[in-house]
Amino acid sequence: MFHLRTCAAKLRPLTASQTVKTFSQNKSAAIRTFQQIRCYSAPVAAEPFLSGTSSNYVEEMYCAWLENPKSVHKSWDVFFRNTNAGAPPGTAYQSPLSLGRSSLTTVAHAQSLVEAQPNIDKLVEDHLAVQSLIRAYQIRGHHVAQLDPLGILDADLDSSVPADIISSTDKLDLAVFKERLRMLTVGGFYGLDESDLDKVFHLPTTTFIGGQESALPLREIIRRLEMAYCQHIGVEFMFINDLEQCQWIRQKFETPGIMQFTNEEKRTLLARLVRSTRFEEFLQRKWSSEKRFGLEGCEVLIPALKTIIDKSSENGVDYVIMGMPHRGRLNVLANVIRKELEQIFCQFDSKLEAADEGSGDMKYHLGMYHRRINRVTDRNITLSLVANPSHLEAADPVVMGKTKAEQFYCGDTEGKKVMSILLHGDAAFAGQGIVYETFHLSDLPSYTTHGTVHVVVNNQIGFTTDPRMARSSPYPTDVARVVNAPIFHVNSDDPEAVMYVCKVAAEWRSTFHKDVVVDLVCYRRNGHNEMDEPMFTQPLMYKQIRKQKPVLQKYAEVLVSQGVVNQPEYEEEISKYDKICEEAFTRSKDEKILHIKHWLDSPWPGFFTLDGQPRSMSCPSTGLEEDILAHIGNVASSVPVENFTIHGGLSRILKTRKELVTNRTVDWALAEYMAFGSLLKEGIHVRLSGQDVERGTFSHRHHVLHDQNVDKRTCIPMNHLWPNQAPYTVCNSSLSEYGVLGFELGFAMASPNALVLWEAQFGDFNNMAQCIIDQFICPGQAKWVRQNGIVLLLPHGMEGMGPEHSSARPERFLQMCNDDPDVLPDLQEDNFDINQLYDCNWIVVNCSTPGNFFHVLRRQILLPFRKPLIIFTPKSLLRHPEARTSFDEMLPGTHFHRVIPEDGPAAQNPDTVKRLLFCTGKVYYDLTRERKARDMAEQVAITRIEQLSPFPFDLLLKEAQKYPNAELAWCQEEHKNQGYYDYVKPRLRTTIDRAKPVWYAGREPAAAPATGNKKTHLTELQRFLDTAFDLDAFKKFS
Ligand SMILES: Cc1ncc(C[n+]2csc(CCOP(=O)(O)OP(=O)(O)O)c2C)c(N)n1
Questions:
Q1: What is the pLDDT of residues 658-677, one digit of tens each?
Q2: Which residue's CA is minimally distant from atom 9 of ligand 1?
């Protein structure tokens, strides 16, 4: 009996009427007990009727008996008395001779039925069957819920009907229901008899269908399960590995009568549907031949989003950041975010000129930021819709990153004030891998936004593709299961059901701070866009859609029949909104110019002048006082906390760092330390994120120290620099480039006063994030007038590490630079270098010294505007003894060198120089070594281009003019069709007015970026070095 007592004492079950709150208070005790149950499983099995599966039931009986021996059947009473008196396993059970009166349940008429049980085995079995039945509904009920407003696919591609629950196409047909019930029970899956339907069963603690009742007749149990799980809402949650969370959801959907709305709420819902529907109708009337990706068929999206926002606002959220695709975007802007209608309507005027620089974007891609009062809660709320490209789902991680940043900057460590909402199409949600990558960020400490509400506009089609051809999972939402997010499928033709799940989703997010998915199962009334003919490819579906009454009409009829509104009131609501649209339309004609600036999703108040210009067009020195350099260097080479044991190898690294500081020099790691540390001093938040960045892929950084004796004890010296410094965040990311780079880009959007860096493990892997680079980083400002100062650190260099650990693909970044190769800019212009930076779409650098790396990082923040910065970073140079910079080159007055000219013997006698080699990055060290070996320091000058783009025409012209008798050659270690050659050559030629050829010394064209063979690598290296220093090499071409 000890085993039962132990179980009962510690796993005291909840009654259905107990709250989830009570449960969570006892949670820790419950967890302990689960382990102990297993220890006692052997004696339990000795009872004739006990098995692993029945033990739950017996425990419940035992708990009930402990509270009141009369509450259980006589036979149990005898059994528990005997076991308590010490009866050995197997002897406590006695078949009852007669069954006296007892009170098993609070349902009066149940008593006699239970008493009539002739056989305790049957009693146990039946209860177990009922328990399984309840569980079956909880797990599989959604498979038979009526989710599809069209009644065709039911949203669930798994067409098999679960054998263990009731299913019928028409739950309201009593005859069908009865028949199915009979099939399931009589001789069916559970072995229950027809007579059992009216027997009363004790309800397990894992259901709330009883409400205040702890037992119900089987027939009623099934009916209530049907109501909870198989109507217009399909709840998928039983995969969640947390009992408290499962109980919470069960309570929300099972409690009888829980889905109630006041008349006021119903009227609000109708009004919101009116707006949603009439907005699309208005656009259709005015611009019938324009694409707008209308919401027809899912008009319920607008009230759904508003409900999520209202409920979240009620729970304390005051900033919602949203991301969404094309479908319904204009409607969301108008009716959720409340963008002025005239601003939307004037986007349709093809004759309006754009006022802003840049290429602009389609109207259904632009972002938006708006602060207003939430009418329902009377609280302030800020809504931001992030601008996005056509590339579906690409904005997901961006939204997350921006949300994280907003939370970070307002100290919202638990996500109580700022939240994210992501909208998805069904095909994109299932098909795009970035969705999965983004989900995997959702619970990581440095990336979590403490729960995103995902809303899927599941119109059961992707452009022309049927879901049966578009995914292999039953639902488009299955991807969300990986993070244990509950998924609420809902038939969007039932607006009240939609409102209910949206409320629950918002509550879930504010209770558990985890992701949740609302799957709005709907249809698309038109083609993919308004110009498309859907009947070409979906004839049957669209025949059905033509017959489908719009949801507004349906719901209005319901409310009129319920007397909640009358017909004139409803019509009045419609004409009120139509009038609003008409008036805005008239005003929109007064707009003469389109301002993309009105569509900024992330304003940076105070950073620009009021008319959006930089506050100056200069950049101060990026150097630092010696004592600051020394202080940062000292902290970087120490362990700033007591009793902290670091690894012996790390001690040696720190010792070497200390020596560098003593010698007033920096290597790469120290240069980075000093750039970050000094910005922190100036109140600039620094965030470095990427795979293994804390230590650094090449084990050079060590920004997080690990105590060798205490698990998880770490120290970040960078956060021990100054008393009032800004925080430093350094975080190893998940193994995702697309997701994490998108996230950091979003993070960098929130504030200009942060240095946000993403480092690729090797630059080669940046192409996994190609979409973020191509769609956001490169053209972001041109499309959305939004600046972004994200920094990409891309380890790059041919070091014999094979084709996938060598190239960050500089050619691609350079090819996307917007400076003209053929036009020499006005080099006399004031602040030429800053103007160039201001005009460029991004900055591409390849530093050859740690000092220049230090300066370019600091310049990124000291510039009066923000541009993305791409840095090809070194690998072997991290430890190269010559790759060092003296403090002297980092003191006040020093700055980033766009070009590092030759400063050796060749520069002293430039007229005698035969060849001027231009290069960038690490190859410089190969060239100087080779030049020394060949003793050609007087004949060959080597000039380094540190800032590749924007191209330093001014400085390079000086260099070219300095060596009038020299041949010009570009030398790179990359293959000819890769690297920088194609970018540099035409610009160098423009610089010198095409007066001379620009020769090439480097690897030959190739398909792969690098050889996998070390020997070949070295041979290739020697071959191009030979060319670089063979003064006759190009004679044959000239
Ligand atoms: C990454 C990407 N691939 C392809 C497309 C082209 N495209 C535009 S809409 C669309 C269908 C999207 O279907 P779904 O996600 O269900 O959204 P819906 O349009 O039905 O609302 C496709 C394939 C795209 N925009 N983005």
A1: 999 999 999 999 999 999 99
A2: 463
Q: 443: CA distance to ligand 1 center in Å? A: 27
Instruction: List the residue whose alpha carbon is closest to atom 26 of ligand 1.
Output: 391
How is residue 194 annotated by DSSP? Answer: G
Gap from CA of 399 to ligand 1 centroid (Å): 19
Q: Please report, for residues 587, 835, 945, 990, the alpha-carbon distance to residue 828 in angstroms, rounded to integers and kept in the order given.
A: 46, 12, 20, 16
Residue whose CA is at the smallest distance from ligand 1 atom 22: 463
Ligand 1: which atom is nearest the Cα of residue 459? 20
| pLDDT for the residue 16 | 36
Give the C-alpha separation, 197 to 186, whole Å.
10
Determine if ligand 1 sits within 6 Å of the CB of residue 394. no
SS3 809: coil
Residue type, position 270, single letter: L
**Distance of alpha carbon 429 from alpha carbon 432, whole angstroms:** 6
Element (H, E) at 715: strand 714-715
CB of 427 closer than 6 A to ligand 1?
yes
Under 8 Å between Cβ of 983 and 811: yes
Assigned token pair, 535: 């009947």
Closest Cα partner for 684 from 755, 621, 790, 757? 755
Q: How confident is the model at residue 346 (pLDDT cuts 50, 70, 90)?
A: confident
How is residue 725 annotated by DSSP?
Answer: P
873 CB-contact burial (10 Å; exposed 0-12 / middle 13-18 / buried 19+):
buried
- The DSSP result for 948-978, as a single string, is EES--HHHHHHHHHH-TT-EEEEEEEEETTS
Distances (CA, A) of 381 to 84, 399, 418, 546: 61, 17, 10, 39
Confidence of residue 593 (pLDDT cuts 50, 70, 90): low
Which protein residue has the closest C-alpha to ligand 1 atom 17? 425
Regarding the beta carbon of 207 and ligand 1, being less than 6 Å apart is answered no
Using only C-alpha atoms, the chain has a radius of gyration, in whole angstroms, of 35
Band the pLDDT of 173: cuts 50, 70, 90.
low
Return the structure tokens found at 421.
């909402």
Q: State the distance from the centre of ligand 1 to the C-alpha of 911, rounded, in angstroms.
A: 62
pLDDT, tens digit, 9 for 90 and up, residues 207-226? 999 999 999 999 899 899 99
Q: Is the CB of 797 inside a 6 Å radius of any atom of ligand 1?
A: no
Query: Is any atom of ligand 1 closer than 6 Å to the C-beta of 463?
Result: yes
Ligand 1, residue 327: give the atom nearest the CA: 21
528 φ, ψ (degrees, to nearest 5): -55, -45
Strands 940-945 and 915-919: parallel
Q: What is the pLDDT of residue 472?
A: 92
Rounded alpha-carbon distances, angstroms, from residue 735 to 91, 443, 690, 692, 714: 58, 14, 8, 9, 22
Q: How far is the CA of 743 from the centre of ligand 1 (A)?
A: 22
Q: What is the pLDDT of residue 51?
A: 46
